[in-house]
Amino acid sequence: MGFTHVEMMPIMEHPFYGSWGYQITSYFAPTCRFGSPQDFMYLVDRLHQAGVGVILDWVPSHFATDESGLCYFDGTHLYEHMDRRLGFHPDWGSYIFNYGRHEVVSFLISNALYWFDKYHVDGLRVDAVASML
Predict the structure, then answer these.
(1) How many Cβ atoms are within 10 Å of 94's Cβ, its own excluded?
(2) Torsion over CA of 100, 73, 111 and 58, rounded to 10 degrees?
(3) For labeling, which of 112, 121, 127, 129 is most exposed (least CB within 10 Å)?
(4) pLDDT at 15
(5) Is the pLDDT of residue 18 over 70?
(6) What is the reported pLDDT for 66?
(7) Is the pLDDT of residue 80 over 80?
(8) 27-55 tens-digit pLDDT
(9) Can you tell me the distance from the alpha carbon of 96 to that of 113, in angstroms, rounded to the nearest whole number?
(10) H/E segment holding residue 127
């Protein structure tokens, strides 16, 4: 049909299926809902063999409030803002990254590079850019 790329909704692990993957808890893990990490590697490889690139939706704007995720990660507000007025997205019920912290910037850059390096994806579509601005 002439397609050159597929774009996938976020495949990172997330606790609430109804979020469609947009409220992530595990930024460095493909969701186990569709198989193992090796299964995802195989899918990307097969798509590449067919001449089809892979673009992932990536969510560096906010993250799930679940205790198993990033919120209050080290006992402090490491990834989110301390002030809930700045650090909570009421419409989505999720925490907003505090981009003023070097740890956050390092985490997000490392995560983006991880998907390119380990899974050989070809691009990332950054979700919710308007909310980041």
Answers:
(1) 24
(2) -80
(3) 129
(4) 77
(5) no
(6) 83
(7) yes
(8) 999 999 889 999 999 999 999 999 999 99
(9) 21
(10) none
Q: How many residues does the chain have?
A: 133
What is the rounded distance in angstroms from the CA atom of residue 86 to the CA atom of residue 67? 20
Single out the residue of 118, 6, 8, 10 nearest to residue 53, CA to CA.
Answer: 6
- Whether pLDDT at 61 is above 90: no
Distance CA 84, CA 95 (A): 8
Q: Distance between CA 23 and CA 43 in Å, rounded?
A: 23
The amino acid that residue 44 corresponds to is: V
Residues with Cβ within 8 Å of 52's Cβ and at least 6 positions away in sequence, in order, are 3, 4, 5, 6
Check: CB of residue 28 under 8 Å from CB of residue 114.
yes
pTM: 0.89
| Contacts for 92 with CB less than 8 Å, ≥ 6 apart | 22, 23, 62
Q: Residue 112 is encoded by which pair of tokens?
A: 């983006």
| Alpha carbons 88 and 90: distance in angstroms, whole number | 6
Give the chain's count of helices (H) and strands (E): 4, 8
